[in-house]
Amino acid sequence: MRDITNGELKNASLSQLNDICRELREEILAAVSECGGHLSSNLGAVELTVALHRVFDFPKDKLVFDVGHQCYAHKLLSGRAAAFRTLRQEGGISGFPKRTESEYDSYDTGHAGTAISAALGLAKARDLKGEGGYVIALVGDGSFNNGLIYEALNSLKILNTHILIVLNDNGMSISETVGSMSGILKEIKSASDGADVPVEDSKDDIRLFERFGLTYMGVVNGHDVGELLTAVGEAKEALKEGSVLLHVHTRKGYGYSFAERAPTETHGVGAQSGHEYSAALGEELTALAEKDSRVVAVTAAMTDSLGLRGFFTEFPERAYDVGICEEHAAVLSASLAAGGIRPYFAIYSTFLQRAYDEVIHDICGQNLPVVICLDRAGITGRDGETHQGVFDLSYLSPIPNLTIAVPKDISEFRAMLRESLKMSGPLVIRYPREGSEGAELPENGIEIGKFEVLHSTMSDIVLLAAGERCLSLARKVLHRANAEGIDFTLVNARFVKPLDEKLLSSLPQRTVITLEDNVLTGGLGDAVARFYRNSGKHIYAFGYRDEFIPHGAVSDLMEEYGLSEEAILDCVREHYARR
């Protein structure tokens, strides 16, 4: 796509602006079809982004995206059109706002709820330095469920600065937006559309925002460029007197009929190469719930992507989507368990970071039988730094009472879920998005805290691998080593906490190599090294070095950032030669 200059955008007629919107939409669709990415959310924000770029003067003015799922048109309008087909490819442009990529990206985002806090900070920095310019936070209605939004709004008057909050209301996060705030926004939209909603009810809803110190403006048709230009211009003028909330109604997937009909399925588009753990989670939890009325499922606005749609359909009274409120989901799970229920809290690894305090104090501090199903653990690939699930072994391992399981395949994952009902304390099961099904395990095929020896030899080298990816890598190394006449013992370290101390104590090998799909600091390697301290054994840990990992293909990033097949094989060769 050609670069659309700022001057062209500022001087374009309404008809030409509509043509620009069509060009942007076509390029987003083509690039996502080629590279993968977030489709429906970006298609729905095209006209809104064009209006903001027309009325404001970026990058002097600052635009902060909440999450950033809708930033593609912004990237195309800020000098990155020629590079757009490198979207989410290693070395290419990010799928999220990124300050190191462009001066037009004023703040890095990737998790929901941060935009208003960030906008307030940028605006206050502007004020303190005596600079001009406007600060805009573009926030989806799904993020308005997140408590951080209200922490920021609570300090709006205290900070005494002016920002524009653009509420991009499409009734969706990844799945349909849930909760009381969703109902309030629907009520406001219905009154605006002339529906039979009491006027006073709508006014009361609007007063909620005004009590925070915002001037409410809306509801604006987010796909009518002319209406948007008028509304954004009026909001800009009103910013001279105080902060403004501009309520814009958009449609996720707008302009592409399939995406409009299936906004959840087209939220994130990418190639899939194997079986998904999430499908197994949904199947097993549904089967457990059929046998045990205590089983419930909890999720934070990710019902479909975590494989729980079938469970929600089958057991609606035992299925809880609390919106983008991970802290609340963790406490809810803890209190359900305290009340004698068996909650399964499904969440991405990167998002559990947001509920860390609650995992420590509410779940583990009370030693409650909550099962945290930790999806997208390890490198996740194309979404980059904010979504890589490479820290969970490190931040979870120090917590007392917690068991951490890492299945070698989907069948072992299913067995762990079945075994979890027998546990009296908290359990985390971490797993990547995709994997192999594996051989079905017999009843009682998993013993909590016990490793599995997959290949045993008289060699003086043992390799401990945690999780499917690392075991797959270990098997490749073993195959190549065997071709060279080299052998080693291979162990499925399927519990990172507790370690299988009995097995570790019995291993005669002097060289111990660990593999983990996690940062090295605080993970499996550190735990094994502590166990063998002063034993005379030589410990060599492979995991990810102390850097944030950017976007790219999973296999390439694993190789580049610390899980290199060649480096592991070289380690085996070196120590085999010393025997």
Features:
globular, Rossmann fold, alpha/beta, 40% helix, 579 residues, 7-stranded mixed beta sheet
Blueprint (SSEs and pairs):
Elements: H1 6-11, H2 14-35, E1 37-38, H3 40-43, H4 46-55, E2 62-65, H5 72-76, H6 115-129, E3 135-140, H7 147-154, H8 156-159, E4 164-169, H9 180-192, H10 199-211, E5 215-221, H11 225-238, E6 244-249, H12 257-261, E7 268-269, E8 275-276, H13 277-291, E9 295-299, H14 309-314, E10 319-321, H15 326-338, E11 342-348, H16 349-352, H17 356-364, E12 371-375, H18 392-396, E13 403-405, H19 410-420, E14 427-430, E15 434-435, E16 452-455, E17 461-466, H20 468-483, E18 489-492, E19 495-497, H21 501-506, E20 511-519, H22 524-531, E21 538-544, H23 554-561, H24 565-577
Parallel strand pairs: 2-3, 3-4, 4-6, 5-6, 9-10, 9-11, 11-12, 12-14, 13-14, 17-18, 17-20, 20-21
Antiparallel strand pairs: 1-7, 8-15, 13-19, 16-18
**What kind of assembly state do the chains in view correspond to?**
single chain
Number of DSSP-assigned strands? 21
Averaging pLDDT over every residue, what do you get? 92
Rough outline? globular
Instruction: Please give the share of residues in helix.
Output: 40-55%
What's the CATH H-level superfamily name of the largest domain?
Thiamin diphosphate (ThDP)-binding fold, Pyr/PP domains
- CATH topology value of the largest domain: Rossmann fold
Cα end-to-end separation: 60 Å
The count of domains is 3
CATH architecture label of the largest domain = 3-Layer(aba) Sandwich
Task: Give an overview in words.
This protein is an alpha/beta fold and 579 residues long. It folds into 3 domains: 6-264, Thiamin diphosphate (ThDP)-binding fold, Pyr/PP domains (Rossmann fold, 3-Layer(aba) Sandwich), CATH 3.40.50; 275-435, Rossmann fold, CATH 3.40.50.970; 453-577, Rossmann fold. The chain has 24 helices and 21 strands. Strands 10-9-11-12-14-13-19 form a 7-stranded mixed β-sheet, sandwiched between helices. Helix 6 (115-129) packs parallel to helix 7, helix 13 (277-291) runs parallel beside helix 19 (410-420) and helix 20 (468-483) packs across helix 24 (565-577). The termini are far apart.
